[in-house]
Amino acid sequence: MTKGTTSLGKRTSKTHTICRRCGNRSHHIQKSVCSSCGYGATAKMRRYGWSEKALRRRTQGTGRMRYMKTMARKAKNGFREGTQAKKQSA
């Protein structure tokens, strides 16, 4: 058995496939665990302090923030609901 070019041609099987949760090609097929987000092993997202850059990539504020983007405005008004704005007299 040679250890060069001929051996590299044998590597045809995929160990990792697309993850359902994070979308990365990090889901290990045999282990059924994602090496990026931890899907399959834990309900919590996989995150470590020793990789600051990875935390920045997927922290709050990197997505659409469908709920959180309205919070600043609502907090400014004291989270009031069901009221009508007063008419401004000229």
Notes on the protein architecture:
The chain is of the alpha+beta class and 90 residues long. Helix content is 18%, strand content 7%. The chain contains three helices and three strands, in the order H-E-E-E-H-H. It has a three-stranded antiparallel sheet, with no helix packed on it. A hairpin with a 4-residue loop joins strand 2 and strand 3. The longest helix is centred in the middle third of the chain and has 6 residues. The N and C termini lie far apart (92 Å). The model has no long low-confidence stretch (mean pLDDT 94).
Main traits of this protein?
3 helices; rod-shaped; 3-stranded antiparallel sheet; 90 residues; alpha+beta; 18% helix
What is shown here, in short?
The chain has helices at about 5-10, 50-55, 70-75, and strands at about 15, 25-30, 35. With about 90 residues, the protein is an alpha+beta fold.
Shape by Cα distribution: rod-shaped
Q: What is the residue-averaged pLDDT?
A: 94
> How much beta, percentage-wise?
5-15%
Q: DSSP helix count?
A: 3
* Cα-based radius of gyration, to the nearest Å: 24 Å
Strand and helix order: HEEEHH
Q: What about the largest sheet?
A: 3 strands, antiparallel
Side-by-side strand order of the widest sheet: 1-2-3
Secondary structure: number of strands: 3
Distance between the termini: 92 Å
Kindly name the structural category: alpha+beta
Uncertain residue ranges:
none
Report the helical percentage.
10-25%
